[in-house]
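[job 4417] fold queue: 2 targets
>>> target A
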Amino acid sequence: MPTITFASSKGGCGKSTAAVLLASALAERSAVTLIDADPNQPIVRWSKRPGRPKNLAVVGGVAQDTLLDAIEDAEGKTPFVIVDLEGTANLLVSQALSRADLAIVPLKGSTLDAIEALKLVKFITQQERAYRRDIPYRLLFTQTPPAIRSRTLKAIEADLLGQGIPIFGTALNERDAYRAVFAIGGTLGTLSLDEVGGLEAARTNADRYVAEVVRALKALRSAA
């Protein structure tokens, strides 16, 4: 029963999009609880539109004093728990990381985002010491060009890997379909070509991302 957190020290990095794509895909095979701990509640708003998977429960309105209760309650009800955290590093984020089987840190392919991601990695390391447990994490590049990876992105990725920072091999591309999920509702599976272009490419990209997350969870479980 893995608990997966999405954390970032800044907003606008595609954190909620990555969480919804993963939760929606996992809900096709199992029950999932998606906890929206972002003060802006983007996932709660998405969940009120038509098309949310029946196997996907969305919990919002959590605060610092209720987050752990919400996670524990969800862990007792569904095999997968996903937590979308606010774009900062604070006690609420610390509490969620203490329960994480995998922390995913989204970032765009910019130097500023890489610096902020490294701050979050340092924060995770501090929480490992505080809670006396390993907190596995992976960085996830988001909003990348679908066709050509820029020199800047390649250089940032190489620098992070050189520092021993684990990164998902699949990046979430910049896709209209991902924005359409939040604007129209539902999932990539319920959208139609009449509503958005490039849908099949978006589905393929998302499937590869989800498959890599699942492989990471299995590898971590085997190692444990």
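>>> target B
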Amino acid sequence: MKFHLRRIVGDTLLTLEEFSTVLTQIESVLNSRPLCPLSEDPSDLSALTPGHFLVGDALNAIPEPSLSHLSESRLSRWERARLMVEHFWRRWSREYLQRFQVTSKWILPKSNLKIGSLVLITDSRYPATKWPLARVVALHPGQDGMVRVVSVRMASGSVFKRPVVKLCVLPVEDAQINAD
């Protein structure tokens, strides 16, 4: 967190209130990440988060429009603080998800995805604290028997085909699968 915070804030002078706001929003980002499924029920798409340990439920934030397309000179001080949180989210979520994605390039014959696995969908269009979750409903192996595409069911009930490289198995569930 400190690594990205130093790069986001840089030489910007923030008031105590602005810095406190940025840190609180970053705390919400970090404590909203899914750790593992709450249940084994295939229809349940909820995940345990650090927020469950802090407040007893998942942390929620109101989605706000992105400010990254606006010139920084046109932004108010409040909007600059929000922009810092957006930059933090973009950098940190990309790094966080890359640690848990499969990077073996299908050389290893073992797949860590199975039907019913709860996965994160890597999509940069989602705002901070929004982690799109889905359940794997079907595996689609290629001609060589390696699974590169799966069908996932989103919370809305719609089913999509997604490449495995755009999915991320939840970290704790991944450890349980590898232990089996």
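[job 4417] complete. Note on B: Confidence is low (pLDDT under 50) at residues 173-180.
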